[in-house]
Amino acid sequence: MKNLILATLLLASNAFAHEEHDWRQDYMAYLSVQYDLPMSYEKTTKTQFATKRLDMAFFKQKLITLSSTTDRRTTDNLDIARQFLKSEYEKIGFEVRFENFGGGSNFVAEKKGATSPEKVLILSSHIDSVRCKGANDNGTGTIGLLTVAQELAKNNYAYTVRVVGFDKEETGLVGSDAYVASLQSKANIIGNINFEMMGFNSRKDGSFHVIDCQKATSVALTNEIRSSIANLGLPLTIVKACTDRSDHASFWRHDLPAVVISENFFGGDADPCYHAKCDIVDERLDYGYMGNILEAVLDASEHLLK
Ligand SMILES: [Zn+2]
């Protein structure tokens, strides 16, 4: 009997230690939803990719490659993903390293700033998935970031741009927690823009999240993205919600500026294939919508990098 209780307690504590990151469980985030523009915002029947600066054919091709393994939770499959990203980032001239922590490995790729390389903008995504190919969660964030980096590689900026692919987000933000704790000079971090799943847009209304939870340190990042949307005339609507269930929250714990970008998950337009076997590359992914979001983030990143 005692052993049974002990076994149950061990199982329970183990389950807690590996609590699955699941946005659906964040009811406070659903309650906190607010639209930047009125809901009467004119819906488009088809998402037009407005600026065409980013190469979305490249995006699709690389998303298919990244999503070809069944489950990015095993070390083997994560290694395949990290090696794939390494070769892609080296092709565009970024310096790549892996930063190991207890039980995992974060992917880091960097392009040094021309005049003040000590100042760093961190663009991130988690590279793991939950029992599925994870094409949307978080293939779209990871390849979206690669597609943005491809453009950033073409120009020189004052500050350093650093891409981080976090391991073990889905098991409780483990990789980002270890990464931010290990950062040497936190004062030089301009901020973190964290890319989450962004492929689902069934309402075709361009609604998406930039989540800062109105933290004083972080609203400036949202404002940069809002300005880029306005300046570029992108058909996007920011829907506010508040959640700490992705890697941006690891930056918040150290008072660093951070936001997370995603599809309108809490506003009722969430991917039905979230954490499900059907999260594959198929017609439900909206490339025009993703292209527009990525254009906004690219433009905002360029402003932040000067
Ligand atoms: Zn995710």
Keywords:
306 residues; alpha/beta; Aminopeptidase; 9 helices; 19% strand; binds zinc ion
Structure, described:
The protein starts with a helix and ends with a helix. The chain has a single domain (21-305), classed as Zn peptidases (Aminopeptidase, 3-Layer(aba) Sandwich), CATH 3.40.630. It has 306 residues and is an alpha/beta fold. Mean pLDDT is 90; it is low at 4-17. A nine-stranded mixed β-sheet has the order 1-8-7-9-6-4-5-3-2, sandwiched between helices. Helix 3 packs across helix 5, helix 5 (135-152) crosses helix 9 and helix 7 (219-232) packs across helix 9. The protein is built from nine helices and nine strands. Bound molecules: zinc ion (ZN). Zinc ion binds at residues 126, 137-138, 196-197. Zinc ion (ZN) binds next to helix 5.
Brief synopsis:
With 306 residues, the protein is α/β, with parallel strands linked by helices. It has helices spanning 2-17, 27-31, 56-66, 75-91, 135-152, 174-182, 219-232, 248-252, 287-305; strands at 34-35, 95-101, 104-111, 116-126, 159-166, 189-195, 207-211, 237-240, 258-263. The protein has a single domain, classed as Aminopeptidase.
Write the layout of secondary structure elements.
Layout: H1 2-17, H2 27-31, E1 34-35, H3 56-66, H4 75-91, E2 95-101, E3 104-111, E4 116-126, H5 135-152, E5 159-166, H6 174-182, E6 189-195, E7 207-211, H7 219-232, E8 237-240, H8 248-252, E9 258-263, H9 287-305
Largest sheet: 9 strands, mixed
Order of helices and strands: HHEHHEEEHEHEEHEHEH
How many strands? 9
Strand ordering within the main sheet: 1-8-7-9-6-4-5-3-2
